[in-house]
Design brief:
Layout (H helix, E strand, L loop, with lengths): L14 H14 L8 E2 L2 H8 L3 H13 L3 E4 L3 E4 L4 H5 L19 H8 L12 E2 L12 H14 L14 H15 L8 E4 L1 H13 L5 E6 L3 H9 L3 E8 L2 E2 L14 E4 L13 H14 L2 E5 L15 H4 L5 E6 L11 E4 L5 H12 L4 H12 L2 H28 L3 E4 L6 E6 L5 H10 L2 E2 L1 E2 L7 H5 L5 E3 L2 E3 L3 E5 L5 H16 L18 H6 L13
Helix pairs in contact: 1-3, 2-3, 6-13, 7-13, 8-9, 14-17, 15-17
Bound molecules: pyridoxal-5'-phosphate (PLP).
The site of pyridoxal-5'-phosphate has 13 residues, from helix 8.
Length: 539
């Protein structure tokens, strides 16, 4: 056998491992063919100028891994069938399957197909008022990393399957304590089911508590992603209007007139209007649900951030008859990629929800649950909320101030006392699409509230809308997220908007750097290359 083998006595890798690597490579590359006989250990050792033990050790390893085989009385050979070959599928020409007929879907599959959606791009403008994300640049990354590393170094139990159907108990304890203290939720850890965010909690609720074809009430406007879940399950939706005090509870029909199984509400910061459901309405809603044997889904997605007034007690905390299913999420307070939320359930519903959750996805990732439990127990969670509340409160005031200054009564501000977004209703003679387009031209990204309205009457009714040149004028309502923007960006964004929508230049921000003060909307537009805007239909 004439085989070039290079060994380096000074290399850190022991000689037997080097020889093993060289021989293995020779076999895999075909320089040593199957059934080819190898020299005896004595001969190869002599030829390479190494000890016989070195050669034996590398042969032994190749034998144990199935690259070589010995034939008694004859010698050592390269195996017929190599282990690596066994792992490789045979190369075949890829042929796309050609089903003879379309694959039929289940009823659920058909419904999903009939309510298609895409995760649409958000505005990519230089200053984007997109909403729904916290200020991720202020997330305490070093601290989170330290907690992660500590768990990786000190235990390995998180590598295994979880044994708790409801989720990691210390995390449920931490959440129960927090909710009792901060949100006046009445619960213990046994009532909590940890979920993959609000999305999964809503999906479980409709799968377990309502039949396709049955009715539930939703806020109008309301959270689009929730609506999509309900529709995909074939639930019939009754939209109930919202005003500045939240859901108009008196518009809920009695179940004798109209059977309703569930009501979905965002009482502490109505999405998207930001309205706070007043205490009388909270009590009225609870009384209605008890009287009509309906259940209330309370989505408390961002009420950690309430400015200037005491938080209103949760519906769940006011309830005395177990009619409220309370949902929370860490998407807005920490980060949405964490995918951890929670469902506080009436005790009788816990086992069935836990089983259904387990059937769907078995469990949440163990490591993140442990890190989050530490994060809350060690006090970091609430201090992060305090810090972020100060930041958002400042941004919110800058935004409100800029809107007042630039637009005066042509921009009506709604729902600014909580959360991380507010809503603006423009009193301007433009359609939503025109407003978005004009904003784009000055490098500002806006998202219309339009997709969050359900019914056609919502599109056409009301003093806020009208018909111009045959086109339905929408309400001109836009959701302004402010959590990701600096005060300079917020001011600059609104200043540009004023130029784009009012056709005026503003000298009121004279303290801003001079290159940011443009007077001509046309030439200003040329300075930016905005992206295609969407109609605001985002999740
Ligand atoms: C009303 C409402 N609920 C819940 C969420 C968060 O959902 P998840 O926990 O699935 O991230 C959002 C996100 O935008 C929301 O607007």
């Amino acid at each position: 056998m004439e085989l070039a083998i290079t060994l380096d006595a000074n290399a850190p890798l022991p000689l037997h491992q080097q020889l093993y690597g060289e021989l293995r490579h020779a076999i895999l590359s075909g320089r040593l063919r199957s059934r080819q006989r190898l020299p005896s250990t004595r001969m190869l050792a002599q030829r390479l100028g190494v000890s016989r033990i070195t050669v034996s050790q590398s042969y032994d390893r190749l034998l144990s891994e199935g690259y070589l085989q010995t034939v008694v009385g004859s010698g050592t050979y390269v195996c017929d069938q190599l282990p690596d070959d066994l792992l490789q599928p045979e190369a075949v020409e890829p042929i796309l399957p050609q089903p003879r007929s379309p694959i039929s879907l289940s009823t659920y599959g058909e419904r999903v197909r009939c309510t298609p959606f895409t995760l649409q791009a958000e505005p990519q403008a230089e200053i984007s008022f997109r909403y729904g994300r916290p200020g991720l640049d202020d997330f305490p990354m070093a601290l989170w990393r330290r907690l992660l590393v500590r768990h990786c170094q000190t235990s390995d139990t998180w590598l295994d399957y979880a044994t708790d159907l409801q989720g990691y108990r210390p995390l449920r304890e931490a959440i129960a304590q927090y909710l009792t203290r901060a949100r006046a939720v009445i619960c213990n850890p046994d009532q909590i089911l940890l979920t993959n965010g609000t999305q999964q909690a809503l999906d479980l609720i409709v799968r377990l508590l309502i039949e396709p074809g049955e009715w539930m009430a939703i806020e109008n406007p309301g959270y689009l992603s929730a609506r999509r879940i309900f529709l995909s399950h074939g639930v019939q939706l009754l939209p109930i209007p919202v005003d500045e005090s939240g859901l108009q509870v008196h518009q809920l029909p009695s179940t004798q007139q109209h059977p309703l199984r569930l009501v979905y509400v965002t009482p502490s910061h109505q999405f998207p209007t930001g309205a706070l459901l007043s205490l009388p309405r909270r009590l009225e809603l609870l009384a209605w649900a008890q009287h009509n044997e309906a259940l209330i889904i309370e989505d408390d997605y961002d009420s950690e951030y309430r400015y200037g007034s005491r938080p209103m007690p949760s519906l769940q905390g006011l309830d005395t008859s177990g009619t409220v299913l309370y949902l929370g999420t860490f998407s807005k307070v920490l980060f949405p990629g964490l995918r951890i939320g929670y469902l506080v359930l009436p005790p009788a519903l816990v086992p069935i929800f836990a089983q259904a959750k387990w059937l769907g996805d078995r469990q949440l990732p163990n490591l993140e649950q442990r890190v989050l439990a530490d994060f809350i127990h060690q006090g970091h969670f609430e201090s992060h909320i305090r810090k972020m509340r100060t930041r958002y409160d400042y941004g919110r005031r800058v935004l409100v101030d800029a809107l007042h200054t630039q637009f005066s009564d042509r921009a009506e501000i709604l729902g600014e006392t909580a959360g991380i977004h507010l809503m603006v209703r423009f009193h301007l003679p433009f359609s939503d699409a025109e407003i978005i387009q004009r904003a784009e031209q000055v490098g500002v990204g806006l998202i219309s509230a339009k997709p969050h309205y359900l019914d056609a009457s919502g599109e056409k009714s009301g003093e806020e809308s009208g018909i111009r040149n045959g086109e339905v004028m929408w309400r001109r309502e836009f959701i302004f997220g402010y959590s990701e923007l600096s005060d300079t960006e917020l001011q600059e964004g609104i200043r540009r908007l004023a130029i784009a929508l009012l056709g005026e230049s503003s000298s009121r921000f004279s303290s801003l750097p001079s290159q940011e003060t443009h007077s001509d909307p046309e030439s200003f537009a040329d300075c930016f290359s905005p992206h295609i805007s969407q109609d605001g239909d985002r999740l």
